[in-house]
Design a protein that fits this description.
125 residues; alpha+beta; single chain; OB fold (Dihydrolipoamide Acetyltransferase, E2P); three-stranded antiparallel sheet; globular; 9 strands; six-stranded antiparallel sheet
Amino acid sequence: MNIPKNLKYSDTHEWVRVDGDVATVGVTDFAQSELGDIVFVELPQKGLKVGQDDACGTIEAVKTVSDINAPVSGEIIDVNPDLEDEPTLINTDCYKGGWILKIRMSDTSDLEVLMDGEAYEEFAS
């Protein structure tokens, strides 16, 4: 299981890469392996305001459908257009090409409740 140490993690298996007040969000290697082959991603609309833990999209896999939860509060400023034609990017490159959305954070203190890589590794095992 690949768990980059420079990211933050939610207990619903989303990862967060922080750059200033922008959080790039995706699902973890653990989550994509549990979901199996991903066939469709329902992306949220840009401009949507979300609270921490709000469902803001879905991932459809061969075995199941799972919510994408916002790990931080704010406004969705971008979504990954490549996932519309190639949702399997989440399976093959979940931490880079398979990112899902970007949120301009309204409250950076939301990051304090997220896990670091070490804590997430313990949580996911």
